[in-house]
From TrEMBL:
InterPro entries, A to Z: PDZ, PDZ_sf
Transmembrane segments: 12-29, 50-71, 83-114, 121-141, 172-197, 209-226
Protein name listed in UniProt: PDZ domain-containing protein
Originating organism: Sporanaerobacter acetigenes DSM 13106
Entries under PROSITE patterns matching the protein: PDZ
Keywords of the record: Membrane, Transmembrane, Transmembrane helix
Recorded superkingdom: Bacteria
Keyword Transmembrane: yes
Length: 378
């Protein structure tokens, strides 16, 4: 175990590892722009996100390396010469297709049908399975921490929700076919992107992680069976992209058909999110809480909140209907500065937001849209 940890820590000396970390930081920086646009400030510093993701990525790499060692997985680096370019091409159709479960499955099926390219299908699918196992592990412990409150269109109305994005640089150890008896370190980027409209973020991440775990376990079982039954290679090649896509489409369907829970409340003001270390968080306000009154004054709009805090009171008490339907009273005092804001984001009863978050479009779809706008397609 010590040798494993030492080998992974040695990857910190590699320029490739720090390039991957830089890519993760760049992704967080892009997301930070949307975060600041919605909240007016950043939930947490960029460096903190980077450090947390790096540490957890290392932890995920340890878990994955142990699994590879137990399975005795050996890979041929030339296999990914075919898979990586296809993954990049598929991402032009949609960003999610960059996942190796699609390109790996397609290349494996082509290899089985036409005899070229020659790849080790079992080892490739094992890599795909274990990477998804690591991803499920990271999502369940860290996926909800990347939540950004958003407003989306659902059933022709604006509803609240959360956009969840996390990225992890994951170094792991694996043996090469016909190479050194010592494992080599490979660095991968794992990412999680999802929406939560019909579930709370933690519940959504648990659901997604469970589905990915099942997917990973299924691929591992099929890979083991394929060692003894060659016909199972076809099942394995087809299962990788098909089942991965099924997981995504099932999740989307549940969000699309499920009842949105972050909708305006007819009584009081419903809370979508609190700012870290803000007054609302310190008081104990949580997502889904409905503020009924402040210092005995009824609340029906943001103007009522502003009026209640207009003179920066030193002490406030708030009557809240929590997500379980229980009426509770929370209080907060600041005798030094007074209380000027609750540092929270409400779900408006009438939309006063000029933006909604849409699904990420692929480079190809954006290009076709530009061509259409220019009038080349009538």
């Amino acid at each position: 175990m010590f040798e494993l940890l030492y080998s992974l820590l040695s990857s910190l000396k590699s320029p490739v590892y720090w390039i991957v970390v830089a890519i993760v930081i760049f992704q967080y920086k892009k997301l930070g722009k949307m975060e600041k646009m919605i909240l007016g400030s950043y939930r947490e510093p960029l460096y903190k996100k980077a450090i947390v993701s790096t540490v957890l990525g290392l932890l995920g790499g340890i878990v994955g390396s142990i699994v590879f060692m137990i399975l005795g997985t050996r890979v041929n680096s030339s296999d990914f010469i075919y898979i990586l370019p296809l993954a990049i091409l598929l991402s032009l159709i949609h960003p999610r297709f960059i996942c190796f479960s699609y390109a790996g499955g397609i290349i494996a099926l082509i290899s089985l049908l036409f005899g070229y390219p020659k790849i080790n299908i079992i080892s490739v699918m094992t890599i795909v399975a274990v990477l998804h196992l690591i991803e499920a592990f990271l999502i369940i412990i860290d996926g909800h921490n990347g939540k950004i409150p958003i407003f989306m269109e659902k059933d022709n109305e604006i509803v609240g929700g959360f956009n969840m994005n996390r990225f992890w640089p994951v170094p792991f150890l694996v043996f090469l076919e016909g190479g050194s008896p010592l494992p080599v370190t490979v660095v991968a980027i794992l990412g999680y992107g999802d929406f939560a409209l019909a579930k709370y973020p933690k519940d959504k991440t648990k659901e997604t992680a469970a589905m990915l775990f099942i997917f990973s376990a299924l691929l591992l079982v099929l890979s083991e069976l394929a060692k003894s039954y060659s016909k199972m290679l076809y099942v394995l090649a087809i299962a990788s992209p098909v089942f991965h896509e099924m997981i995504i489409q099932m999740g989307r369907k549940r969000e699309r058909l499920g009842e949105a829970i972050f909708t305006p409340s007819q009584r009081g003001l419903k809370l979508l999110d609190t700012m870290p270390y803000g007054v609302g968080e310190k008081m104990g306000l949580k997502t889904g809480d409905i503020i009924l009154s402040i210092n005995g004054n009824g609340v029906q709009s943001k103007e009522d909140i502003l009026n209640a805090l207009y003179f920066s009171p030193k002490y406030i008490w708030i009557d809240v209907l929590n997500e379980k339907g229980k009426l509770v009273t929370l209080d907060y005092k600041d005798y030094r500065e007074g209380i000027q804001s609750l540092d929270v984001l409400f779900i408006p009863k009438e939309s006063d937001y000029s933006f909604v978050v849409e699904e990420v479009k692929s480079p190809l779809s954006r290009l076709l849209k530009r061509i259409k706008i220019k009038g080349l397609f009538k």
